[in-house]
Write a structure and sequence with these properties.
The chain is an alpha+beta fold and 188 residues long. The protein has helices at residues 3-11, 79-84, 105-112, 116-142, 145-160, 165-172, 176-187, and strands spanning 26-30, 35-37, 45-51, 54-60, 63-70, 75-76, 90-94, 98-104. The longest helix has 27 residues, at 116-142.
């Protein structure tokens, strides 16, 4: 799915081309291991994943924690920094070669001034982001690591094999050995 198709689906519109959109969209490619957004950078780009997986991390004491993974057909960025134009406390990194489309903040903000569709899209995406974060927090507080892994596997099975086990364990907040036991139990 392209960003244009995504935009039209979310808004039930029929923009025929990228040129018809009220903001500019550019294709971009990142290689596996490449940093997309650095710690301390002011985020000025919103990304749409066409193909690939990225991880979002945050520094915590002496370690780095994985906040989230983003997959095909998802929008992502260092969202707090994108909104308040302050340096971000997260890093976004490609876990495999990624094909994306990007929208610059300036182009999006300018479109807010004259486009009802863009305002509606921004609101819907902000609501989606809030629901995603809220569900993640609830999951961390109410579910076991085994339940969270099963849920992750249920919704993202086609991607799981492309994420190293140690990263999945870090995301779940458990040791890789514990994840191995969980996987063995689920697969038996």
């Amino acid at each position: 799915m392209t960003f244009l198709e995504f935009f039209n689906t979310i808004l039930n519109t029929s923009f025929a081309s990228y040129e018809a959109l009220p903001f500019s969209v550019k294709k971009v490619h990142f290689k596996k291991g490449e940093i997309i957004t650095e710690y301390g950078q002011v985020e000025d780009t919103l990304y749409f994943m066409n193909n690939g997986i990225v991880e979002m991390t945050i520094k915590s004491y002496m370690t780095e924690k994985i906040i989230d993974f983003f997959f095909n057909k998802e929008l992502f960025c260092g969202y707090t920094s994108f909104l308040d134009e302050q340096p971000t406390d997260v890093q976004i990194k490609a876990l495999m070669d990624c094909d994306m489309e990007m929208i610059k903040r300036k182009s999006l903000i300018e479109a807010y001034d004259f486009s009802l569709e863009v305002n509606k899209f921004g609101r819907i995406m902000t609501e989606y982001g809030y629901i995603r974060k809220s569900n993640r927090e609830k999951s961390l507080l109410t579910k076991t690591a085994e339940e969270r892994y099963a849920e992750m596997f249920q919704f993202n099975a086609e991607y799981i094999s492309n994420i190293p086990v140690n990263k999945i364990a870090k995301y779940l907040g458990i040791h890789p050995e514990s994840l191995s036991r969980i996987r063995k139990k689920i697969n038996s």
